[in-house]
Amino acid sequence: MAVHAHPDDESSKGAATMARYVADGVEVLVVTCTGGERGSILNPAMDRPEVKENIGKVRNEEMARAREILGVEQRWLGFVDSGFPEGDPLPPLPEGCFALEPLETAAEPLVRAVREFRPHVILTYDENGGYPHPDHVKTHEVSVEAFEAAGDPDRYPGVGGQPWQPLKLYYHMTFNTGRIQALDEAMTAAGLESPYADWRKRAEERPEQWEVTTRISCGEHFETRDKALLAHATQIDPDGFWFAVPLDVQREAWPTEDYHLARSLVDTELPEDDLFAGIREKVSV
């Protein structure tokens, strides 16, 4: 189960990992907390009045295409996008948005999804949300709450279903310093303009809070990831940053997607190369 804040987040974080496991026969569910109704239109070709007027419907349709490309199941939690406040001081968040929901209210439908889907592994964001969007931070909070509560029959008794305890919880480490450095150096070595030069400077100036514990080899699924990204046409400019590094350069320089193992109820040896390490093993008597 991969828990994300908005439609398109599942395609920019961990999409090749999901495609790899789908190809291996693993059932994968993407949970999308909000509809992305307050997201900006980031692709100039889609910045049109009819798209703006129906942005919620458009993003729902984009998500449907992306999940088909990735081969995953997908569930909406039904909360309203909080938007990304900007300014100094920051404006208040809009009433009724996801980030302002009480924790138990926001986590309840995710607890229900965990008990129904019964995942062994959950992917989510770190406590900073990966970046400080209020919906990403809230997604972290509800994911941790659901991981800890779904297996306890005394918690959330009203959601129904049998208690289910996931075994591992991971944080996405998509833009870790090592990956940024490797891609920047690979682009320079190939004589190409790197989109990561400024990112690298910023990354090197701040220490990472979480170490990468788990690297999933999924380079052969980068093309599927990119197709899923392009399905989110309002959010992804096909001539933009996401596609500046050729796939062959990416596969050579950094063919993995990376994670931090935040919780584990099974024994596993770090570093890992499989999200199901410690789960796949069978005990013989």
What does this structure look like?
InterPro entries: GlcNAc_PI_deacetylase-related, LmbE-like_dom_sf, Mca. By secondary structure, the chain is α/β, with parallel strands linked by helices. It has helices at residues 9-12, 15-23, 49-53, 55-70, 103-117, 134-149, 177-189, 197-205, 222-231, 247-253, and strands at 2-4, 29-34, 73-79, 121-124, 168-172, 214-217, 256-264. The chain has one domain (2-175, 211-276): 3-Layer(aba) Sandwich (Rossmann fold), CATH 3.40.50.10320. The strands form two sheets. It has a four-stranded mixed beta sheet. Strands 1-2-3 form a three-stranded parallel beta sheet, with helices on both faces.
Give a quick precis of the structure.
With 285 residues, the chain is an alpha/beta fold. It has 10 helices and 7 strands. α6 links the parallel β4 (121-124) and β5 (168-172).
Notable traits:
single chain, 285 residues, Rossmann fold
Ordered list of secondary-structure elements with their pairings:
Layout: E1 2-4, H1 9-12, H2 15-23, E2 29-34, H3 49-53, H4 55-70, E3 73-79, H5 103-117, E4 121-124, H6 134-149, E5 168-172, H7 177-189, H8 197-205, E6 214-217, H9 222-231, H10 247-253, E7 256-264
Parallel strand pairs: 1-2, 2-3, 4-5
Antiparallel strand pairs: 5-7, 6-7
Helix pairs in contact: 4-9, 5-6, 7-8, 7-10
